[in-house]
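Encode chain A's predicted structure.
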Amino acid sequence: MRFGTLRHPFIAHRRTTVMPRWVRRADRSANRRVNARHDRRALDSGYRRLSRAADHGRLWFVLAGVLVVSGRSRAALRGVASLTVASIIANLIGKKLFGGSRPLLKDIPVGRRLGAYPTSASFPSGHSASAAAFATGVAVEAPLAGAVVAPLAAAVGYSRMHVGAHWLSDVVGGFAIGAGVALLGRVLLPARPSVEGPAPERGERIDLPSSPDGSDTLIFVNPSSGVEVIRTDPRSEIEKELPGARLSELDSDDPPSAVVARALASTSPPRVLGVCGGDGTVSALAAVAREAGLPLLVLPGGTFNHFARAIGADTVEHGIEALRDGRGMRVAVAELSTGEPPVTVLNAGSLGIYPDFVARREGYRDRLGKWLGGVVAAWGVLREAEPIEIELDGESMRVWSVFASVGRNDPQRVATMRRWSVDDDVLDVRVLHARGPRYRAVASLAFGRRTAAVARALHLMPRSSDIERRLVPELTLAVLPQDGSVPVFVHDGELETRLDEDAAGRHEIRFTMVPSDLRVYA
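Encoded structure for chain A:
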């Protein structure tokens, strides 16, 4: 059947009788104007690719994965749920009720045409309904993220006119259905703060030095942490609540270990080492605290703050209260060895598709920013990621990813980023074997329990037989040579690229648990 012909006479009749005459005139006028535009070849190609990327909701599922990785799992869940309902209404109900023929292929400039066009009825646009539903659903839970997604959703709607797949009224109708579904969902299920899983197990309670005003406390502040999120400056709150504390900004030319060594050698050495930053900064200062034998005060100042949340220091205020009361606990950590001196790991480490995503995102970050760079990176991983060859404790295997969590974690997840236990003395390893398609490997990065449940219901998650779990006190990984590329490893959100290479070209990584080796205020 050629594009532009009618699937059934009834479809054309329904559009003619249901749609008012002025709507049909507006449709023809709008499409004439769009088709008369002489856009550059690159722009035509861009709209074609954008339209195809949104086929079957693939673009929005990738964005949902980015939202999950960025800590907005409830926004991702509401966006995907709204998209699913809107798509059903638009494609299975709306098209049956209204129908209608699509624009004629002969009217569409050759450079804009798709390789293949849908044969379903024209009204409403399913792409537009899905786009509006996802963007509105995300905005309900996370307005800033919704504002970022909205222009992309609008571009997808316009692209359907640009390539000649829909009329203006089809796109407007799709937008109305999608936004209406998401807003109705807000009425039925109001937005609320996200709570991911049960509270972590609390470790052994211990007494630590108390300090009402921060005296004898040296606190390192990372000014570059958490710049992608909207929040008040934590430094001003620290200075107000702990006037006696000494604050020091992190300086690459003067590492914290050297600053602490000088402070300990002074006439008034600190009794407490504090840190305000994200997970990578906290893990770096945890290593300094372990070496100096000082308790660590964690004040969340990053984007995710996984470790701070795990010990109950969800806010700067909570951390300060623990310091004033002298309340703390012993925490197990892991040591990562990659040929360099061991690195302290507090949450988890990963090899495979997640480090690939992080490395790509960092490459785009300066030009596109973290969030848009994350979208482009996720799309690149979805299209180009390849399995890696590893040796795990001497056993050769081909995998999509390996995650190692400090302590036992949720058995239902493949990707573990936030630790669930505090004083557990084992590594919880998840190996995703490369037996399934790439899109399922990417979907395995659904960190939220609800988001993962939706992905599983849509048959996007890997099969349970492809996932291997090991509980071990230590782990040795060797990445085998592959196309001359240097593997990357992520621990506590930080990229690790300095992996030593042995004579066989392998890159070895060793993880070892260190039970109850860190004292923290909690």
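The radius of gyration is 27 Å.
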